[in-house]
Amino acid sequence: MTSPESASPSRPAKAAGFALLGVAAVALVIGVVSLFGGGDESPSAGGSSTAPPAQTTTESTTTPPTSESPSAPAATTTTPPAASSSAVVPPPPVTQPGVPKVSVRVYNNSTITGLAVRAADDVRASGWAVEGTGNYSSGTIPTTTVYFRPGTDEEASAKELASVLKARVEPRFDGIQSSAPGIILIVTNDYQGPSKNK
After folding, report:
1. Cα(171)–Cα(173) distance, rounded to whole angstroms?
2. DSSP 95
3. How many C-beta atoms surround the C-beta of residue 106 within 10 A?
4. DSSP per-residue codes, 55-83
5. pLDDT tops 80 at residue 27
6. pLDDT digits (tens, 9 = 90+) for 53-95
7. What is the mean pLDDT of the chain?
8. Which residues have C-beta within 8 Å of that of residue 188, sequence separation ≥ 6?
9. Could you tell me if residue 12 is inside a domain?
10. Domain around 68
11. Rg of the chain over CA atoms, in angstroms?
């Protein structure tokens, strides 16, 4: 059986293109965060004496954890919250206590070009690490589904991710049973992205 994470030998250029698109998407996110939040790291040559130090400590506790995103340090206290939080930093996902965030691989099983990359960006924005993207062409998946290995940490994390994405969640099937550990998200034409907060 062929693992979904290895590219087809007849399409190495396509696999390389998807990898470059993923790298470009990450670079774009880091660039945008640096653009809006990077100016706050400049030397304080007399403009910051009016803000009390206790205020910066209080506000910094509301920033997202730094371990989940390389761009998290860009969220600082001198930028007005209304200008930066809605445009750059998504709200942190509501997580169940004790549910670990297991890494995710995203595969496209649709007719929409680039859907795996778009879904991977949504998964990252929701707090999960994405290990890679690609195509799943070993069969037709009827609806966007999050797959896990039963009896592992993957199960709770997969259920949480499926809830965020309004996707189906199921144990791995025979075609992906031997894939590397982690959650597998296979997106189809019905993929809508994360549910919006009401």
Report:
1. 6
2. -
3. 29
4. HHHHHHTTSPPGGG-TTGGG--SSS-HHH
5. no
6. 443 333 334 444 444 434 334 443 343 444 434 444 444 444 4
7. 72
8. 109, 110, 141, 142, 143, 144, 145
9. no
10. 58-89
11. 19
Q: Give DSSP secondary structure letters for 28-41.
A: HHHHHHHHHHGGGG
- What single-letter DSSP state applies at residue 10? T
Measured CA to CA, the distance from residue 161 to residue 188 in angstroms comes to 16
Q: Which pLDDT score is estimated for 3? A: 47
CATH number of the domain bearing residue 163: 3.30.70.2390
> Are 107 and 186 contacting, i.e. CB atoms less than 8 angstroms apart?
yes
Q: Which residue type is seen at 91?
A: P
Let me know whether 113 and 170 are in one domain: yes
Residues facing residue 133 across a β-bridge? 106
Instruction: Encode pLDDT of 148-195 as tens digits.
Output: 999 999 999 999 999 999 999 999 999 898 999 999 999 999 999 997
Instruction: State phi, psi for 131 to the nearest 5 degrees.
Output: -90, -20
Rounded Cα gap, residues 62 and 184, in angstroms = 31
Residue 123: enclosing H or E segment and its boundaries? Answer: helix 115-125
Query: In total, how many domains does the chain have?
Result: 2
Whole-angstrom distance, CA of residue 27 vs CA of residue 71: 10
C-alpha span between 123 and 109 (Å, rounded): 17
For residue 132, list its beta bridge partners. Answer: 105
Please tell me the pTM assigned to this model: 0.51
Give the 3-state secondary structure percentages of the chain, helix then strand then coil, rounded to 5: 35, 10, 50
Residue 102 shares a structural domain with residue 177: yes
Q: Token pair 């994360």 is at which residue?
A: 194
